[in-house]
Design brief:
about 190 residues; about 40% helix; 9 helices
Length: about 190
């Protein structure tokens, strides 16, 4: 994982989320410590759901699953030091997460995805609907690649959370750079989608 993260950072990735739901706590902590060293002063480090691990490694924030701890409780536990993201799968979840104080959303599944196979792909409509319903930034997740990320940005996403497209790439740094370039291009060339 360290090699993939180092290459992704070299390609311009600015946030790393540690998402290892099945890892024992001691192994997760060791991995988080290693990632904290790699990301320090280079990118934000968010830990998925585990407030204890995030606090232990001085992470920048936490990413909460839709059924995870309440945002307010995480703010209290962290002494309000974390950026807090919430995963959402529909507009109701987005509106509720914003109302409860999330700093940003991870929204999807947008396209079919191996890592989010248990959710039906919503397509770009979810991102488009969020434009008028939430004021906080939201990232697209699910089947996002360097080839389709511009569409998600034009649909309203601030960026994307990606797993397979980068981590399974033959050249992680080049793929990460292609993603960052596609996001920056889309921001400079907005289009109206259906």
């Amino acid at each position: 994982m360290a090699s993939v993260v180092s290459s992704a950072l070299a390609g311009g990735v600015n946030m790393i989320q540690l998402r290892e739901k099945d890892l024992p706590a001691c192994d997760l902590l060791a991995m988080a410590k290693e990632l904290r060293v790699l990301t320090d002063s280079r990118a934000l480090l968010l830990i998925n759901d585990r407030v204890d691990v995030a606090l232990a490694v001085n992470a920048d924030g936490i990413q909460l699953g839709e059924d995870g701890l309440p945002v307010g409780e995480v703010r209290r536990l962290s002494n309000d030091k974390f950026i807090i993201g919430r995963s959402i799968h529909d507009v109701n979840g987005a509106v509720e997460a914003q109302a409860r104080g999330a700093d940003f959303l991870i929204s999807g599944t947008i396209f079919p995805s191996k890592s989010h196979f248990n959710y039906e792909a919503s397509g770009l409509k979810l991102l488009q609907d969020l434009r008028t319903l939430v004021r906080i930034p939201y990232l697209a997740i699910g089947g996002i690649t360097s080839q389709n990320i511009a569409m998600t940005v034009n649909a309203g996403a601030s960026g994307a959370a990606m797993i397979s497209a980068i981590s399974e790439s033959i050249d992680v740094e080049s793929e990460a750079r292609a993603v960052v370039n596609a996001i920056n291009w889309a921001r400079g060339h907005p289009t109206e989608l259906g």
